[in-house]
Every structure is written in structure tokens, then in C-alpha cells.
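Thread: quick sanity check before group meeting

JM: Hey all, I'm pulling together slides for Thursday and realized we never actually wrote out the predicted structure for the chain we discussed last week. Dropping the sequence here so it's in one place. If anyone has concerns about the input, flag it before I start.
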Amino acid sequence: MNLVKYLIALLFVLPMMGQELKSEKEKTLWNNFTYDIGNIFGGVGYSYSRPFHWKGNDWANFGYLAGGTLLLFTVDDELNDWKNGFQEDIPDFVMDYGHEYGSPENNYMLTGGVYLAGLFTKNEKLRRTGVLLISSATAGGFLQQVSKRIIGRARPKSGENSDVYDPFHLNRVYNYDSFPSGHAMLAFSNAYAIAKQFKSPWVKIGLYTVGSIPGLVRVMDDFHWVSDVAFSTVLSIFIVESIDKYLDSKYDEKYNSQNPKNVSWNLSFGPNTMGVSLHF
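JM (edit): ok, ran it. Output follows.
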């Protein structure tokens, strides 16, 4: 009878021990790392596939973005002449920050650092933020590199007008690779993704402001037209939001799940209005 009791006890204990061992295995550094790498590539693929699943509001927002960009195209030369009037008033440290922060090598140093901090501290929320940062930068970075070669828009510093193009090159043609702005896209993607960590709208707005500086600096230093930066900034929001939605199904940690609509973005476009509105 005692033997039967022991066997029955083992039937209950062994599955529990197996579950504990499996749980420990799932929490190892290597398993977390490989899982996150898979989600990085999955997030990039998910963001690229979204246009095939867009519905009414999604197409409307894309239409606003396209229409607003085309409208800015018509005044890019005037805006470029206007900003030359106070270009020298921008402090050197702001200009240096704008050029350095948005560069790909510095971008991946930041995003990689955030991810590794989350990985080694076993902080899932920080890991997820790192995955979001890396996948957003990868998706946006590849997209803008391909677009530059296809579109071939002249940079302001080339001396050409904003409507001059040298398109369809396999290799990058410098001074004809203005649209879109990689610096603006990478910098604002980072700011927008990191801002998701915080509930305070003022912290978010502060991060958005800092993330906007590289794009504005690139305009001030004749690397981009205003429309390049505006389009890239809004597109980076689309990319981050789509990848973050994908990651919702991959991680238990959610951003500000108690109040997810604390801050919302809307595109507006009409006869007397154009831009991105922020509600909080």
C-alpha cells in the first residue's frame, strides 16, 4: 500500500519538477536572446506587410502623409531660403548633436545598449524596448536606403532646386540621396519608442522634441529639404506603432497598459491645415 502511495506521489511530483526545469530553461540568457532576435526580424517583416492589411483609416492617414509631403514639395525652396536667415544662430553643440545622434553607428550603439541592459538585468520591459528600438531602426533604415537610390532627389547643398532628381541607381549617388532623411527617421524612431516607457505626456513631449533635433539640424545644414524630414518623422511613427503592435503578442509586458490612450497622434490635412496633432 505504501508503494502505491509513493507511485501516486511521483506521478504528481515529476510533472511539476519537469515544468520547473522547463521554466528555468526558458529564462536562460541564451533563450531570451534567441527569442528576441527572432522578434526583431519578425517585427521588421510585420511592419513591411502592414500595407496589405490596411483598412479605411490606415489608407486615409497614408493619404494625408502623401498629400502633406507633396504640398511641402511645392514650398521646399522657399523654406530653404527662409531658414538661411537664422542658420548661424544655432549653437554648435546642437548642430553636432543633430549630426552625430542620428547616424546609424551611434543609433545602434544606443539601441544595442538598451537591449543588452534589459537582457542582462532580466528586465522584460527593457528587453522589449530594445527589441522595438532595433527592429524599428532596421525597418526604417533599410527602407530609406532603398528609397534614396530609387528616388535620387538632389540635396540642398548640391546647389540644385528641390525638384531635381537623378533616380534609379544601384549604388548611392551622394548629393542625390536627399529623400527620405535617415537621420530624422532613426532619431525620431528612438525617441518615440523610448517615450512609450513613460506615462507622463510632458516626458513624452520632451523626448519627441529631442528626437526632432537631428532632422531639423540636417535641414539647417543643407543636407535635407523640409519635406524630407517631415515625411521621415511621420513614417517613423507608423513603423514604431506597427512593430509595437506585433510585440504585444510576443511579450507579457505591455506599455502603460493601465492607460494606453494617454497620448494619441492624428494626421490632419485640408485647405488651411496640415500636420500631425498630439492629444493628451
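AS: nice. Strands lie at 264-269, 274-279. The longest strand covers residues 264-269.
JM: adding both to the slides.
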